[in-house]
Write a structure and sequence with these properties.
The chain has 114 residues and is mostly helical. The chain has one domain. 91% of the residues lie in helices and 0% in strands. It has four helices and no strands. The longest helix has 33 residues. 7% of the residues are buried.
């Protein structure tokens, strides 16, 4: 998922029309994957009686982060498109260790529940 998302920005912003179309397709794939994975992950971590609150808090944090990242990317786009692409790729690559840590914590929690 991270490799697909990291490849999206260069296609979208550094290429011509075929690259932009490929970037849109990659973005759609990554968003669909992310939505299904994140819903399942949140559902696994939150007890059933608190699941609505967990989803609400998750989506609130996700929305705030998305807005902040989009605002920063808008500023970068105005200044230099290459800086925008570098930021987008870097933030995806930096997310990999965080995802690995989150997955290992999830697995540890599941083992403790068993």
């Amino acid at each position: 998922m991270f490799a697909v998302e990291a490849a999206t920005a260069p296609f979208l912003f550094l290429g011509r029309l075929p690259g932009a179309i490929a970037g849109m397709a990659l973005w759609g794939i990554s968003m669909g994957t992310q939505e299904s994975i994140m819903r399942a992950a949140v559902a696994d971590l939150i007890p059933a009686e608190r699941r609505a609150t967990g989803f609400g808090l998750f989506h609130m944090a996700f929305g705030v982060a998305w807005f902040a990242g989009s605002a920063l990317m808008g500023i970068l786009y105005q200044r230099d498109v290459r800086a925008l692409v570098a930021f987008a790729v870097a933030i995806q690559v930096l997310a990999i260790p965080l995802a690995v840590l989150a997955n290992s914590a999830r697995l540890k929690t599941q083992r403790l529940k068993s």
